[in-house]
Design goal:
It is a single chain. The chain is α+β, with helices and mostly antiparallel strands and 168 residues long. 40% of the residues lie in helices and 15% in strands. The protein has one domain: Ribokinase (UDP-N-acetylmuramoyl-L-alanine:D-glutamate ligase), CATH 3.40.1190. The protein has six helices and five strands.
């Protein structure tokens, strides 16, 4: 919905349609912080704001929301997962790199693939966090500006990386 540089990729009418027509049928929504702010009209400044926004998105009909923490400051990248039956967080060390182009699309594509492979939603989210963490932490060093993530890293590292999982 919103590019890394802050540019909106959807017209206002499309956002309304997304919320009203798609969200009631949506299993998982994976917004970053600027997207959460657009969806809810809330300014996100702390964990309490994230929790309240997640509940609002769940009330829109989404069954599970993964609020990605890449836009927040701190030494760790913390994604927060909320559903009607389970809530947890996934924490990895923040990687200082400019090679983060496509992280949101990569995460959601990995999530879709893991679900298609038959993993549970929770297992799919965890493996997708590993996938994107490895993709960011193993740069390709190509392009200018924000380079792409390394989609080969997960297989190269055999999916091995540390992700701290904790209840909310």
């Amino acid at each position: 919905m919103i590019a890394k540089g802050g540019t909106s990729l959807l017209q206002d009418a499309a956002v309304t349609t997304l919320i009203e027509k798609l969200f009631p049928y949506t299993t998982i929504c994976t917004p970053n912080i600027p997207e959460v702010e657009l969806l809810t009209g809330r300014h996100i400044k702390d964990v309490k704001d994230i929790e309240e926004a997640a509940q609002e998105i769940l009330e829109m009909g989404v069954k599970c929301v993964v609020i990605k923490g890449g836009h927040l400051d701190g030494e760790y990248a913390i994604d927060r997962v909320y559903s009607r039956i389970d809530s947890f967080s996934l924490t990895t060390p923040r990687i200082q790199t400019k090679d983060t182009h496509g992280t949101g699309c990569t995460f959601s594509a990995a999530l879709t693939a893991n679900i298609a492979k038959g993993l549970s939603i929770k297992e799919s989210i965890i493996e997708s966090k590993k996938f994107i963490h490895l993709a960011i932490s193993t740069p390709l060093y190509i392009g200018h500006g924000h380079g792409p993530t390394n989609h080969f890293a997960y297989n190269g590292q055999q999916g091995i990386c540390e992700v701290e999982i904790s209840g909310l």
